[in-house]
Structure formats: C-alpha cells, structure tokens
Amino acid sequence: MVSPTPPSAHVQGNCVAQPRLPRAVRMVSLRAGQSDSIRQRPGETIFLKGGEQVKPFPPHPDLQPLTPTCNPPCLAAAMPPGVSPGPEGPSAPAPSGRAGRRAPPPPRRSPGLPEAKRRGRARRLHQEVAELQDGLQHLDLAAEKPVPSGTGLAYDKELTSFHCLWDKSFPECPARLTSIWTKLVEDGLVERCVPVQARLATEEEILLVHSPQFLALMASTADMEEGKLRALSDTYDSVYLHPNSYHCARLAAGTVLAVVDKVLSGELRNGLALIRPPGHHAQRERMEGYCLFNHVAIAARHARERRGLQRVLIVDWDVHHGQGTQFIFEDDPRVSYNTPSVLYFSVHRYDNGAFWPHLPDSDSSAVGRGQGCGFTINLPWNQPGMTDADYISAFLQLLLPVAFEFQPQLVLVAAGFDAAIGDPKGQMLVSPACFAHLTHMLLALAGGKVVLALEGGYNLHSLTEGVSAALGSLLGDPCPPLAGPAAPCPSALQSISKALGIHAQFWPSLQHVEVSALSTEDEGVEEALGETGGVPSPVELPCPEALPSLEAPPPRRPPACTGLVYDERMTQHYNMWDSQHPERPQRVTRALSRLQELGLERRCLRLPPRLATEPELLLCHSPEYVARLRATVGLRPRELHRAGSRYNSVYMCGESFEAACLAAGCVLSAVDAVLAGQVQNAVAVVRPPGHHAEPDAACGFCLFNSVALAARYAQQVAGRPLRVLILDWDIHHGNGIQHIFEEDPRVATTWQQQQSPWPRASGHCWETPHWPHLQSWHYPCLHTPSPVLSMPSAWPALCTVPTGPAFVSMDALYAVTPLSWCPHLSSVAPVPPAGLDILAPCQKCGCQGENWVCLTCYQVLCSRYVAGHMVAHGDASGHPMVLSFADLSAWCYDCEAYIHHPTLLPAKILAHRLKFGNELPALL
Fold first, then answer.
1. Alpha carbon distance 574, 135 (integer Å)
2. pLDDT per residue as tens digits for the range 253-293
3. List of E strands, 300-384
4. Percentage of the chain surpassing pLDDT 70?
5. What's the chief localization of this chain (predicted)?
6. What integer pLDDT is reported at residue 762 of this predicted model?
7. Which residues of 82-109 are buried (b: 16+ CB within 10 A; e: fewer)?
8. Which of 3.90.1150.10, 3.30.70.980, 3.20.20.70, 3.40.800.20 is the CATH number of 557-719?
9. Second-level CATH architecture of 151-529
10. How far apart are CA 898 and CA 891, in angstroms?
11. β-pairing, 410-415 with 312-316?
C-alpha cells in the first residue's frame, strides 16, 4: 500500500517534490532488536527491513531543501510501518539503547603526499575535460543550418539598349555584354547557373545612396534630345548619356539587388550580375567615369538597412579607383559593436596620382573619416604591368587578414576586368585565370555569400575570359593553373608595405607585421622603379589585335568532386598494453561515422584501398627499416614491446606492419585518382599517422611517412615535372617530412610553427606563423651557413620592402618562447679548455646527424629523433641541460622547456663561432 503524499511534499503536475536524502542512508537486513550490533557512521540513518530504525545522529548537513523529482515511488511507500517522511527526512521515535550515548567519530587520517597529488591531478583532469566538453558544444556541425546551393546569373538584353550617340567607337559599348554572354554559353556555364530575373530599382532604393535632386536630373534625361544629352554629358568627367541611360541604370541597380536578395534569403549560394553601365565611380550627386548610379553602394546600403546585416565587405578590383564608393562610405556611421557596417577595399592603378581619376584620396593614406576611419583600404599600384603575383600577394597580405578579422556577412565585388592583360586602359598583365583565384579566395568569407557585379573591362577578349573564369569559381570549378612560379615586383611590395604600415593601427591582425623604410640599395629596386617618382616609363603592351590567344582549354571537370578512401583493417593496429592510448582505432572509426552522420560520405566517390608495395615504400624509407618493420609480423607481445621501445613514442602489434602499409597505400590510391582526373580532390581517413616517420626510424606513433610517400609517388607517376606543396597543420612538427625533403627543391613544405633552422634546399622548407600573412614578413638569415640561401633569397615573395618602425622584435617571432631562467642552470659547467667539437659523432652509436652536447659533462650524444642516447644519458646521470649542435637551442629535461639565459652564452657563442665562422647575433 502506498501512503499518501506527505504534507511537506509539494505536488507540481506529475512531479512530486521530495526531501533529498543524504548519501548516508542504509537499509539493513537484520531482525528487530539487533540494532545495537550495527556500527553507525556519523550523519547516517539506518532503516531495518524488519521495521526498526536505528536512532539517527542529528540532521546531516548535506540534507537539502525540497527538490522536485518526476514520478518517483513515494518515499512513504519505502518507509517501515509507523515511520513517515518529514520535512527533514525520515524520522521516528528514538529507540531505547545505551542511554543515547553516541560514540565519537573515528579520527580521519590526513592523506599522504602521493594521495594528495593524485587527487590534485584528478581535479585538474576533471576541470580540463569539462572545459573541453564545453568547447566542443559549439563545434557540433549537426547544428549548422543547411548550406545554400546554386549560383545565380542575372542578365537582361535591355541593358544593351543604350550607347554613345556621337562616338561609335566609345569603349563602354553594348558589345561588352553580348560578347560575355556568348562566351558563357560556349563554355557551358549558363546552363549550370540559376537564372535571376532582372528588375528595375525603385526610387526608394536609389535614394539609399543618391540625392533626390540627382535622381530627378537622371530621370529628366529620358526625354532629352541628342544635343542636350551631349551638353549635359560634357559637364561631367568621362560620361555619355542616351535616352535609355536612366532606364538601363535603374535596371542595372535593380539586377544587382535581385541577386543580393536571392543570396541573403538562402535561395542561392552566390551570384553574378552582368550589367552596364558600370557604377563604382558614381557619387551621391554626381555621375562620373561611365557610371550613373552606384549599384554596389546601393546594394550595400540595402543589405544593411533593409536586410538587417551588420557587416558588408566591398572589394573593388577594377583597375580604376572606385572613388564614388569610397566617398559614400568613408564616414559610414557605426551601427553595432562600435564597428562601421561597410569595409571598402580597392586595389587599383595610381601612378602616384598620374592615373585617372588623379585623386589624392586614391592613395593608401586615405583611410576614411570620423567613425569610418580605418574602414577604407586603398592599395595603389604605382606602375603599369602588374601581374598575377602582385594581385594575389595583395589579397594574401592585406585584404584577407583584415577581412577575416572583420567577419563580413556579405561580400560585394566591383568586378572590373580592365586590369586583365591586353586591356588598352589598364595596361596591366593579369591573366584571366587570376580572377578565378581572387574569387575563390573571397568565397571563404561570409559563408560563401559573394556577389559579383560587372564594372569595367574594355578588351573584349580578356574581358570575356576573365568573367568566365570568375563565374567558374563561383560554380565551384577548380581554379585554372597560373602561368608558373612568380613573385611580386619591388613596386608592388613597396605599395603593400606602405598600406600595411598605415592600417596596422586599425587592425590587430596586421600589427605583428614588421615593416621598415625603403632602401634603394636593395638589388634591382632602383632600376625597377625608374627615375621619375617611382613610375617607370610607359611600356608597350600588346594591343587587342596583337594579343596572343588566351583560349587555353579550361581544366576538365572530373566526374566526381571529392574522393574518399578508408579501410577497416587499419583498426587492427592497436596498443595491447594501453587501451586508452591516444592513437587508437576509434580515431578513424569515429571520423568515418561522423562523415556518414553528416551525409558527407555519400557525396564522395569511394576509392579502392590498397597496400603500398615495397618499391613504393622504398621511395622514402631505407630497405633495412622496411625489413625491420616486416619482421614484427608474428612476434610475441614481449618482442613487440621491445621492438616498439627502440623508437620514440611508438607501439607495435602483430598487425602494425599491414596497417601502416594500408595507410600509405590508401593515400597513394587518392593520389592516383586525383592525377588521373577521376576526382578533383580526395580525403584519406588513415592510421597510423606518418609525418614523424624518418627514412630509417619510426617516431611519434608514425611508422611509414604516408604524405612523403605520396609526394614522391606523384612525382614518379605524373610523367612530367611536378611541383608539390606539403602543408602540415598538425600541432606537432613533421620532422620526418622535413628531413626527407630538405634537399629536394621540387617539394615545398610548410608548418604552422617556427622552431627549426632553415633547411638546406634553398628555402623549400619553412615553418610559418599565421600563413595568410607569411609573405609580409622580413626574415634575416638566422643560424644559416653562408652556402645556404636565406628565406628571402629563396622566396622573393617574402621580401617586403621595409617602410617604418617594427611593431615587434624578432624575439617575439618564436611560436615557442624559451624560458628566461630555470632552477637547473646551476648544473651548467664551464666550457672545457679543449673547447667544443661540433662535428663530433654520437659517443654511443657514432651518428653524425642531429647531436647534442651535455652542458654538465660535455658528452656528445644523438637526439631523441635518432637513437635517443642523450635522453638516456640525462635519465641516467641526472644532467638536465643540453645544447643542440643543429640550431644552438638549449633544453632542460627536468623543466621540459627551452632555456635562454646568460649562463648558456659561453657555450652558445663558441658553438656559433665554430659552426658559422662569425659571432653570435646580439638578438640571441
């Protein structure tokens, strides 16, 4: 029988608020009358199943107020007869006992030091796990909204219904649009796009930017005769008017708005508006430079005021400065989070003011006004002939760092193509393929919400090719290859460095960049800049008729976009001594399960897994090492443990060799599919990992270096010279990849950290902090012997021209900052009278590779990445301080950190003098 709800319990719907019992409540299976034999702990209440209750101690401090529990069995039902729960928990008359005497609680022993440490570690681990779980709550991809699909394309033949009545050869002509449309149809791009219906912009939409008086003036031109139209046109700079100009200008502005609305509503992913007349020169009350209404500015205001966006980025890559857009937004009011709503970026030809529109406001010193200060970024080119490398460097060094910091919600592009090669106005040398790359870089912003609006471009051949390339990027096609390796010219580097120096005060993402003043002693700079204000004499560029054909066949689109390779057999590699080892089979099984949950696996082409053959393994590894790993098959557990302990952080089991061959083979299978054109790109979900594996040694959970094997294999099977870039974003340095390719100039490798000395292959390996800004750093040659090129000499793109004071010192460039002191410096002994022998081999194994010297006994032993004899020496002797002969860094084994202290300088100075033949730089 269930007793009624006690008075102290509150009923709320189906939930009954019950007293929360202390943890110390026991039900004991004893007969009545035997309660005296029960040992009762402090604060504990005991009920006997026979119905008797042992007298409780006073109410336990853990007893809490009423707590709701949903549909529990009523507490009274579990109480013995005659006992009912009260507001303080179960209670009953105190039974007779030993005069109510209470035994004192036993004394609690204080935990020892080991137990205290264990508890402290447990608390820290629990806190770290809680913080990690909290952070992962925000990384749930399943909670993301569906990604819009489709690329919109807007075009209307009515936009060709106006032209210059008094100059049939005027460059802004209807053929600009018709030739583009023909080209897009020929390339099969139109049928892949979602058509967007063009529309007229309303007067209210135009008034978002332009004044009522200017709108009335433009409307009046529809009824003017040719003579009045010409007279009115002559009062403006580079403008012609036609009776249909007003209608077409409204249609152009409305068409851009139609595409923007489709993108912002999620109906489309991105879009292109093919319109004329252009618009980016038009100001609030003035037409100029072929432009009547400023379409992009109207779209930005519309997105902000009508669609509620807070941040819009406008990118203007037309060869002429879009002064109209700049003037409209240069004092843009702040709308949220103390941030102006529109960021304007323009890269254009300037020639120190000699190029149209001849305005000081087109220089990089114009940064906006008032609340908009810092949100106008001008990058002026001061000579013609700028190339793909100059424009790509401008995006990587200046635009993208600021854009990712700004985090726009929409990207509008004033897409002029008069910087393309052969354009008679721009006189630049940008290939059509470059516009595909620029578009592709912008798609990483605003969730891909990018809208291109046509501006200039007056060589019909390069114009149509450039538009086709940009639209291909919007559709997700691979970017066409550029002409070949190239570096920005000195004039471009000067302009970029000047802009960086100006805008570093506004944007923290630029404040780590070191820039200093231009030195005319730099080789080739003075000749490249000429003698007249840094502007070279005019160069003869090919005219449209003499322009070589740009109709290179576009890259063939593979039948599938992304390949995926995986094999369950890789999970047979496991640590039989530690089931919780971080490199365990669940890493790949859960990764694949997540791809399946998100529906990504079914969108990929499954590629066949395979084992790497021995000749393939020998592309990077020695025959002896491959034989040693093969010999582990069939070994007993003790022998496997001994085999793994020979290496640094490696375990082995009977299936390890096959799993490692399978991991490498799957990566090679992905390479085959990409090179054969079967897929555009591929993902290999493999284990064990590989980037730490050396040519003759396993290391860091890695057995075979899968990525290094893939690079060598690709060069072998491509049938042509192949340049390979390896990007390693693992948090640990891929020492194996670096050592394999440090003398191979065909493979460039880069890591997201900076720790090692410059490699030997003329700069083809480097570590980089914040890769988008890499090209803006100025690197002196540190720790590098004279026969080896410094990073700038190996990569001209890294040689920015200095233009001002440094914002940070070179000491701050290290991703790992050495400790300035440690308690073990007292173990450092003076340098022996015999000095140091930096070429001495390891005293244990004779290795002459990466060796260290003990700063206590001055023994020379090999590093952990070779045979680990210095690590063993430190454990056995207790000598913690060692110095690397490779990069002259000092390490403390006890502190597990790099150390830099004056106590170490005598040994460092001597080693540096012996290694490089000169004194240690002062910055060290």
1. 28
2. 999 999 999 999 999 999 999 999 999 999 999 999 999 99
3. 312-316, 334-336, 339-340, 342-349, 376-381
4. 72
5. other
6. 36
7. ebbbeeebbbbeeeeeeeeeeeeeeeee
8. 3.40.800.20
9. 3-Layer(aba) Sandwich (3.40)
10. 4
11. parallel
Sign of CA dihedral 503, 504, 505, 507: positive
What does the block give as tokens for 284? 């609030």
pLDDT of residue 12: 40
> CA 552, CA 278: separation in Å to the nearest integer?
28
Active site residues: 281, 692
Residues 35-88 have pLDDT tens digits of: 444 555 544 555 544 444 444 444 443 434 433 334 433 334 444 444 444 434
- Are 402 and 442 in contact by the 8 Å Cβ rule? The answer is no
pLDDT in tens, 711-769: 999 999 988 888 899 999 999 999 999 999 988 888 887 766 544 433 334 344 544 44
- Of 196, 193, 189, 185, residue with least CA distance to 151: 193
Confirm or reject CATH 3.40.50.980 for domain 825-916, answering yes or no.
no
Q: Say which residue the tokens 């897409």 belong to.
A: 415
- Identify each DSSP E strand in 261-356 by its residue range: 270-273, 312-316, 334-336, 339-340, 342-349
Beta bridge partners of 766: 750
Considering the chain, tell me which residue range(s) the CATH 3.40.800.20 domain(s) occupy: 151-529, 557-719
Burial of 909 (0-12, 13-18, 19+ CB in 10 A): middle
Joined together, the tokens standing for residue 264 give: 């912002």
Nearest to 19 by CA among 3, 8, 11, 5: 8
Residues 6+ apart with CB under 8 A from 410: 260, 263, 264, 300, 303, 309, 311, 312, 313, 446, 449, 451
- Residue 789 pLDDT level (bands cut at 50, 70, 90): very low
What is the DSSP code (8-state) at residue 192? G
Domain with CATH 3.30.40.10 in the chain: 825-916
